[in-house]
Amino acid sequence: GAVVSQHPSRVICKSGTSVKIECRSLDFQATTMFWYRQFPKQSLMLMATSNEGSKATYEQGVEKDKFLINHASLTLSTLTVTSAHPEDSSFYICSASPGTSPSGELFFGEGSRLTVL
Amino acid sequence: RKEVEQDPGPFNVPEGATVAFNCTYSNSASQSFFWYRQDCRKEPKLLMSVYSSGNEDGRFTAQLNRASQYISLLIRDSKLSDSATYLCAVTRGYSTLTFGKGTMLLVSP
């Protein structure tokens, strides 16, 4: 099946620093990628839709200046958490669809667990 | 009403039991429906898509009831390895999935 890779899988940083997470589609091109966030015992919440070559579309309540998304190529999207604070500690997961799936099935990266001290 | 709702559980069942989960959705225009499995601290993995006609994959059966706006997942002959959180997901646009909070299943020996 389609493969989506995410890096790093785990990151610990100090409050106020910025953290970049990469999401790559390894065997297909992804015009669109999705970034989710999951707090403990909570659902995956869509943060933003990343569009190759254009601006990301953010969900209501998600600060676009804090969560910078860049989708510079058809296989790579990055999420940068700027000036991270402890409340940003969460599990961040990206996903993408090959587009050949008729029902729009999504494939997920392995997730990145961010801990902000 | 939340877009996608699930009973969080946990459902505690013995090995070999049959267990069923339901998931309700609020957007009647939703087109695609899925069940994902998520193990602790891991990413979700697709378990199965849910079709109007219902579908079965081994011990797993998924059904869709559009009139009542819910989907279901039935697991027969539960195994210890089935212990996980089961997320239902509904599309609100092409590939834009909305997830429920998940239902935790614990299968005991």
Polypeptide structure, described:
The complex is a heterodimer of chains A (117) and B (109). Chain A has 117 residues and is mainly β. Chain A has strands at 4-7, 10-13, 19-25, 32-38, 45-51, 57-58, 67-73, 76-81, 90-96, 107-108, 112-116. In chain A, 0% of the residues lie in helices and 50% in strands. The radius of gyration of chain A is 13 Å and the shape is globular. The N and C termini of chain B lie far apart (37 Å). The chains are: A mainly beta (117), B mainly beta (109). The interface between A and B is medium-sized, with 24 and 23 residues.
Quote the beta fraction of chain B. over 45%
What's the SSE pattern of chain B?
Answer: EEEEEEEEEEE
Radius of gyration of CA atoms of chain A, rounded to a whole number: 13 Å
Output the radius of gyration of chain B: 13 Å
Question: Number of helix segments of chain B?
Answer: 0
**Percentage of residues in DSSP E strands of chain A:** over 45%
Q: What is the makeup of the main sheet of chain B? A: 6 strands, mixed
Helix and strand layout, with pairings?
The complex is a heterodimer of chains A (117) and B (109).
Chain A: E1 4-7, E2 10-13, E3 19-25, E4 32-38, E5 45-51, E6 57-58, E7 67-73, E8 76-81, E9 90-96, E10 107-108, E11 112-116
Parallel strand pairs in A: 2-11
Antiparallel strand pairs in A: 1-3, 3-8, 4-5, 4-9, 5-6, 7-8, 9-10, 9-11
Chain B: E1 4-6, E2 11-14, E3 19-25, E4 33-38, E5 45-50, E6 55-57, E7 60-65, E8 70-75, E9 84-91, E10 97-99, E11 103-108
Parallel strand pairs in B: 2-11
Antiparallel strand pairs in B: 1-3, 3-8, 4-5, 4-9, 6-7, 7-8, 9-10, 9-11
